[in-house]
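Notes, Module 5: Reading structure tokens.

Key idea: the token line is not a picture. It is a compressed description, and you learn to read it the same way you learned to read a sequence, by spotting repeated patterns. We will look at two proteins. The first is printed below with its tokens.
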Amino acid sequence: MSQADGGKGKELYRDAGVDVDKGDRLVDWLQDSGTNHSRRRGEIVSGIGGFAALYRPNLSGMQDPLIISSTDGVGTKLLLGIENNKLTGLGIDLVAMCVNDLYCVGGAPMFFLDYFATGKLDERQFQDVLTGIKDGLKKCETALIGGETAELPGLYGQSHFDLAGFVVGIVDRAKMLSATHVREGDVIFGLKSSGFHSNGYSLLRRWVKDNPKMKTYIDQLLIPTQIYSEIPDILAAMPQGSVKAIAHITGGGISGNMERVIPDGLCANIELVKIATPPWMSEIFNLNNVTRMEVESTFNLGMGMAVVVDANLASNFEKQAAAFGNNMGIVGTIKRSVNSEKVRLLD
């Protein structure tokens, strides 16, 4: 094919709604932006721009390294961000929703890939979102190793886009966290959330639509999801085995996520009064005539992570969490189960 024919092909594709040159420019922008933040966990061998990315992990000091992975999106919080022209935080949300899951098994992220799909590629939108992704990855020392940008006219409306994230990490099997380690008498610590994170936004958007007073809370609703990058350092500072399990409080709320880290025969007894719900979050519940108990299966109520810890080392964990400015204290205990229930919420 001649160069002229190739140019005509690009023009035909552009007429159909897909601008290949614009996509190439944005890939070049990403390559020049410096996105390898995970030197202590490995290094990029070949990253953005190729057909596939290569990464050399650092396995030193690990007895039995396991590769771990997670994928997630931002959900309908995207629509709220688009409607209010606040997009950078959505990139942080995407990173957080993926890497926080890795922390729950005691691991740490190595590298991340994103998928950005839109009807018509808007360079400002893309750069705002990817700036947020890069900011989030810097916080958790994770490399942006690749991704995909798709222009899909006809599938997405004007100015609309969707996001997906994919993260790969590593954990030493000997230090892996799971429900199998949880015992009767263990205590449950809460780590503060930054807000609603990225869950329950179909309900929140309906409240915004139905209640004019909700407009005053848009900034709070778009606070980015907390990235719990301090967890690997806290775990490293604690005696091995003292932290048993971690639950990331996402869709399904406290009850739906805590039961994933509780073994049969035991029950997490959680006192809602000990969960420090932000005042503005409580105001939103009051505005919409719901109680915390009524919406706990949808929202995190101010607790983004729940950590099960050996009771004998509770004070040690509390000091470590406080050092990182994230200390809600003990919110519950592990007891024997009644009627096979794994989570009991006490209001």
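Here is the second protein, with the sequence above and the tokens below, as before.
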Amino acid sequence: MLPEWRGLAAAIMAAAALLGGAAPALAQAATTTTTTITTTTTTTLQPHPFSPATASCVRDAERALRACTRSGGATCRKDFETAYSKCFAAGAGVSCAKRCATRETTCLTAVPTTKKTCRKACRTALTRDIRACRQIADGDNVWAGGDGSCLTTARGNLSLCRFVCSQASLDCHTSLKFCIANCANL
């Protein structure tokens, strides 16, 4: 073990000597260049806030929906769509809000089916990932830890996929927020 350390120490000393002699030459040849770079950032804008009258009306409609749902009402969602759409400007605002609320209801109704299909796709992807991991040849360096790292990555992908599936209803609510941003307020 001692000879290995001597060889390593000799290699470090040689590298230091080589790099030590080259540093002054690099420092003398260095020049400074200043440039101006203009960047443009494009982002998705957040939906605009509601007017005070619209915001108050929307809160009341959402409160009524929660109360109706707790009491077991049969037409809660339909009543909510009507009350919610009336929180916007007459004419185009009401029809826009009604269309957005109806889309959200349709989306929320499809959530169980969406989750089921999504979870099935996650399981299929996991099966394919595991099959691919088993095909890694012994001694292959594609994955730093070999099969173990590949399988860990496959399980991580499964967890991420399942999380995405669980957020299906959140996607519906987010779509409503961006849709409703185009509707005229009271």
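Summary for the second protein:
- The first helix runs from residue 2 to 29.
- Residues 13-30 have pLDDT under 50 and may be disordered.
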